[in-house]
Specification:
The structure holds 2 protein chains of 2 kinds. Chain A is of the alpha+beta class. Chain A is built from 9 helices and 14 strands. Chain B is mainly α. Chain B is built from 6 helices and no strands. The N and C termini of chain B lie far apart (75 Å). The chains are: A alpha+beta, B mainly alpha. Chains A and B meet through loops of A and loops of B.
């Protein structure tokens, strides 16, 4: 009964994971597919071993015993019995060694492949983990072509991506289950993870190492899209923020620059250079706010600016009380930062 | 059995009392917006705008900084947050890790503009001549008080239990271990003479 319940629970869980944007059972990258294959090999072999051992056990229990005891107790076992038992032990050892060899071989093969350097020219993105958001820096050999975004990655289908992982404060862990295994971000060290997306779609990543109060609210999106869409996105990200297009937005920019905002946030093209918080140059183009905590809508943005601690207690962003008129203008300005 | 029961009940009551008596330090994870009002007026000097001839009786002092009391003097969490802000706001740029460089040292007992929490608060918010910028309007009230608590912890004013741990970065002060090793090396130098 308990076993059946367990099976039902597992099936429900598996169904819940399938099709979800954050699941290793639903791989969308070359590496994640191999990891899933490895998992399947492990599971199949473990099930096989379990069935084999239990079969042998049941057969052994059912086998009829010798009922008549010899009159004189045997001091030394018969030569023939001894040899037969020896063979059995040896065979069992060989099978065990073979199973272990398959495990080791499969792990080596997959591990070597999912961590290898890509053969074609990859996209290199430097990821910095901070409490509790992600800074993504798209690197380029031409310094002026480098740009910074936050909590959202865009990558084209089929091109390998190299992530250079760093941390600003404590240990975080970068994990996009649909694309590859996890890798820690360790302060003072640069780790590396590679993935090659094979399907278009939006996949969710999450910090996978407990890092403080808001560890659970430290997520990001990976948007896998066609090469054309990716090129357009990159071109848009490289441009500085346009000047405000109406008087309300112009007032909003004034509010942004005169309040505490530029102490921590940067907006390229608006004389705001703070680097402690996410770069807001194209904040309106992102899907979520506060590292996957809130959908990027006007109402959520307003609530987040005025009282961030309500959504994310412990967040480094302080509350920003302001008048309704100032908030309206600020929202109009931020919404224009596409 | 009947004699044991009251004793057990007594122990249970004592244990319960001990649990209740443990007071955990309050960590303020969320500052409500109403409590975060940034300082509205910053006094930049004794000269105040106003109609000609209408001199005020006394120079207005902006927010009555001297009346303010620090909410975070012995709060370890707030002091560690202050330590974070100290590096985020680039206090290190001038004051170093407390030893001072361009700006005065903060880990000694000398205070040019006063060393009480209210004085330090006013210094951060208003700025001071010869380079100390004003952080009023750039930091919330709450964050300034956290910084005040950390600045005071540099000269060992809050209790040791509340002070943050040593940094991994280069230090102005030598670590206790190094001080100790130096002392033992000196006392056991081969020629037996103490350095002058």
């Amino acid at each position: 009964m308990i076993r059946r319940l367990g099976a039902v629970a597992f099936a429900v869980l598996a169904a819940a994971c399938g099709g979800a944007p954050q699941s290793p059972l639903n791989p969308a990258g070359a590496e994640a597919r191999e990891v899933l294959t490895l998992g399947a090999i492990y599971t199949a072999l473990a099930v096989l071993t379990y069935v084999l051992v239990n079969t042998v056990l049941v057969l052994g229990l059912r086998r009829r015993r010798r009922t008549v005891l010899p009159e004189v107790p045997e001091v030394a076992p018969a030569e023939e019995d001894e040899r037969r038992l020896g063979r059995k032990v040896r065979n069992a050892a060989i099978v065990t060694a073979l199973i272990l060899a398959v495990y080791v071989g499969a792990t080596w093969a997959v591990e070597a492949h999912v961590t290898s350097s890509p053969s074609t020219r990859p996209i290199t993105i430097q990821v910095t983990g901070r409490q509790w958001w992600w800074e993504m820096r798209y690197q380029d050999s031409v310094p002026s072509q480098t740009f910074i975004t936050a909590n959202e990655l865009h990558v084209p289908v089929g091109r390998p991506v190299v992530m250079l992982l760093q941390s600003e404060d404590v240990i975080h862990s970068f994990w996009v289950p649909a694309l590859n295994g996890k890798k820690d971000l360790v302060p003072g060290k640069t780790n590396r993870v590679v993935f090659t997306p094979r399907e278009a779609g939006t996949f969710r990543g999450q910090c996978a190492e407990f890092c403080g109060f808001q560890h659970a609210h430290m997520a990001f999106d990976v948007v896998v899209e066609s090469q054309d869409a990716y090129d357009a996105w990159v071109a848009a990200q490289r441009t500085p923020a346009p000047p405000p297009d109406d008087s309300l937005a112009a007032r909003g920019q004034q509010v942004f620059l005169s309040k505490a905002c530029p102490t921590c946030h940067a907006i390229q093209g608006a004389r705001a250079f703070g680097s402690r918080g996410p770069d807001l140059t194209h904040v309106a183009s992102r899907q979520s706010l506060a590292a996957g905590t809130l959908p990027n809508t006007r109402g959520h943005l307003a609530g987040w600016i005025v009282d961030p601690g309500r959504q994310k207690p412990g967040t480094r962003m302080p509350p920003n009380p302001m008048s309704g008129e100032e908030l309206e203008a600020l929202l109009a300005y931020l919404e224009g930062l596409k | 059995m009947s004699s044991r029961f009251p004793r057990r009940a007594g122990f249970a009551a004592l244990a319960l009392l001990a649990l209740v008596a443990c007071e955990r330090e309050q960590r303020e994870l969320r500052t409500p917006p109403s409590g975060a009002a940034t300082v509205p007026t910053i006094r930049v000097g004794g000269i105040v705008p106003g109609p000609a001839g209408a001199l005020p009786d006394s120079i207005p002092t902006g927010p009555a900084a001297e009346d303010r009391t620090s909410p975070y003097e012995e709060n370890a969490y707030a002091i560690s947050e202050g330590k974070r802000l100290y590096s985020w706001m680039n206090c290190i740029g001038c004051h170093g890790e407390g030893g001072g460089a361009i700006g005065p040292a903060l880990m000694d007992q000398t205070w040019i503009y006063g060393g009480s929490p209210a004085n330090i608060y006013a210094t951060i918010v208003e700025g001071r001549p010869n380079g100390m910028p004003s952080f009023g309007g750039r930091l919330t009230d709450d964050d300034v008080w956290k910084l005040v608590a950390y600045v005071r912890s540099m000269s060992a004013q809050p209790s040791k239990a509340a002070r943050p741990g040593r940094n991994d970065d280069m230090q102005t002060k030598k670590s206790e271990q190094r001080e100790l090793r130096k002392a033992t090396n000196e006392s056991s130098s081969p020629d037996g003479t103490r350095p002058q």
